[in-house]
Amino acid sequence: MYGLKPIAEVQFQDYIFPAFDQIVNNIAKMRYRTGGRFNVPLILRTPYGGGVRGGLYHSQSGESYFVHTAGLTVVTPSNPFDARGLLVSAYKKNDPVIFLEPKRLYRSIKAEVPDDMFEVDIGKAAKLKEGDDLSIITYGSMVPTVMTTVEKNNVNAEVIDLRTLLPMDVDAIVQAAKKTGRVIVVHEAPRTLGVGAEISALIAERAIDSLLAPILRVTGYDIPFPYTHEELYLPGEKRIMSAVNRVLAY
Description:
Layout: E1 7-9, H1 20-27, H2 30-33, E2 43-48, H3 63-67, E3 73-75, H4 80-91, E4 97-102, E5 126-129, E6 134-138, H5 142-152, E7 157-161, E8 164-166, H6 170-180, E9 183-190, H7 195-207, E10 216-220, H8 230-233, H9 237-249
Parallel strand pairs: 1-2, 2-4, 3-4, 6-7, 6-9, 9-10
Antiparallel strand pairs: 3-8, 5-7
Helix pairs in contact: 6-7
């Protein structure tokens, strides 16, 4: 590639699947299959998720397809600062990065970011809010939704933004679970075998003795993304607060 770093975009993630074989069987496995002699320093940007009335072909959240694939790094920023910093960090990696961009945050969040080439560490979650009653673990487009909900309702919650889905910041997840003993995971992707299931399993394996209540997931549903009633599919304040009240009352 003559020393160049390809940064490709697939608009939208819903259209990425014709390239799925090349991504998971060629790009992701190149370093392994060649014994480290060759690698693919590629960044693949792709807008994903709902919130823009795009229907089933413009609103899917398919992150679980990629976090199952060894050899890939998967990141998803929730704000402009992290978007720039994670992109710079991805550029400096010598292996493929799936850069998931929550499309409904494009025009809904604005912030000043430094002009320099600062980095946000890949594989490191961010603690957005301190709290003692429960921990909410989330990422991507659900971060602003969670933050607005807990602030509006004065919930004493610790909020963790994963930022990277592969590799996941296991230490941050376990520490949050041990600190409060109550955990809610929020994501807009379908529930079954989603990122929330992996987080729940990690906590069960490493922090189950610290739990004071069952781990709850607030997610999208196991159905095609709807054209109408999008607000009922996406996790929002009502469903998040229902989970908060359940774990606090347990």
